[in-house]
Amino acid sequence: MTDGLSESQRAAVAVRLANMPQGARTDIQPCANLRNVKPISQPEAADMLQVSRRSVQTAARIERDAPPEVFQAVQSGALSLNLAAAVAYLVIRSHDGQPLRPACGCGSSPRFHEVRG
Fold first, then answer.
1. What is the pLDDT of residues 47-59, one digit of tens each?
2. How large is the greatest C-alpha to C-alpha distance in the chain, in angstroms?
3. Interior CA angle at 4 toward 44 and 45, to 5°?
């Protein structure tokens, strides 16, 4: 299932595959309309696509916080997760001028995330 896709692309697919809302209860039965749909958590999606949970979390932040074109570029393979996280950080920061954590969520300073040539 993962043939031909980069790790970044697989993480982007895992984000779309993960359909369990954060904090969802797993100890109760779903309503009748959803019995055939099994909720998939981010860690389960990561395992299915053979990527780390952190990669899926980073991809989810990029999808949530960055312009849609950035996540689409990850999906197409044009950008890696790391580069997309840096782009997302710069785009978000340029809009409000406030210092924010990088899109990867690691809490490191922006210098850590500079693109090195």
1. 999 999 999 999 9
2. 54
3. 5
